[in-house]
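User: Last request for today: this protein with zinc ion, please.
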Amino acid sequence: MKYEAVIGLEVHAELLTDSKIFCGCSTKFGSEPNTQVCPVCLGLPGTLPVLNKKVVEYAVRAGLALNCTIANFSKMDRKNYFYPDLPKAYQISQYDLPLCSNGYIEIEVEGGTKRIGIKRIHIEEDAGKLLHEGTDGSLVDYNRAGVPLIEIVSEPDISTPEEAYQYLVKLKSILEYTEVSDCKMQEGSLRVDTNVSVRPVGTTDLGTKIELKNLNSFKAVQKALEYEIKRQIKVLEEGGTIVQETRRWNEAKGITEPMRTKEEAHDYRYFPEPDLVPIIVTEEWKEEIRKTLPEMPDAKRERFITQYGLPEYDAKVITSSKKMADFFEKCASNYHSPKIVSNWLMGEFARLLNDTGREIDEVPITPDMLIELLKLVDDNVISGSIAKTVFEEMFFTGKNPQIIVEEKGLRQIADEGELRRIVRKVIEENPKSVEDYKKGKEKALGFLVGQVMKETKGKANPQLTNQLLREELSK
Ligand SMILES: [Zn+2]
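Assistant: Here's the final one, the structure of the complex with zinc ion:
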């Protein structure tokens, strides 16, 4: 029997508001534990929450960007559960009347686009953070308690781990564009849970679903789903049944492991939050928020193709991050070849960002600096390969390219006399290659160019080197 997977994703994103959802405490990440707390977010008796208006505004912004219907009437509810990271023993969330619903994201699949439904987006407060370090039990940091979150729940429209990955990449990019969340997974401001079931192809009933947790990257989501789908199919093929439960992804072993049996909604005893008034979003306010939405990734991609003549692939890669797209546009509007800019962004820049795990706005290179570097290549001051060395130096030190070139003596050798002397030396030292070249082996010329480059530490002007080598060899 052939099986197919049914996948749904739940994404929690911390909102970039300055203060928490129900009090004035700061939401800044990385402060000393328990320094950003007050009686409200510590859940002390007698305190009352006041909803931060910015939270509603940001959630509506995200909802509009994700094509959702915005409820003009919604409310907050209490989700009751006991855990040391939750000081009130309930979380203020939204149950039956979420702020946003019925949206969608379009992802690219083989042969076109696929629409993945977004069932709902609701707002809620984050819990504190337990630290299980040391031997004297666990510690709790309440700085995160009350940080505003949106939870984005997809419809179970996702059929493969690859589609799940595409969905997450697109969702993150849209959230970054709207600037409602910084989406830093490493700081926990974006967290993903997924649930997956399998069923025989051709049937419509849903199988028993398994929730997966501890997914620290989009790649981990993809790998965990791949593993879990295989596992479930194997259980069914061996005549077993799937037990509804939550499983944890073990990255080191590459497997999922049982964590706990899954709670049902009734276990949480949801009821309306009596200390908060309902949330009313008027048409006027909604339209005001809509007007502040920036150009979204898909629209920007199309524009980059027509306005800058970028290939589809380049436009897609560059617009997947708003920061990258902004950087590109600042360069491209002041430089003659947008494609060269895009090559640098997707090549050296992306490689170094990847290696260092940094974001484009966390490195000291500005668009002006990159343009200056490109102009040094255009003016034959440095060669393309030396430019990569200079770029790396810029990346780590923030020094101006011109200064790096002077300091390190990287200026290209374009002096014909000097270069001819080196060319002659190389010819003298490589009689075998010279002979090969004269027998018609073009490859030998490449080797000799390489030797000149080696001799000059990459500083020889490539065109001139080629020209001089041919001249000298034909003598
Ligand atoms: Zn507080």
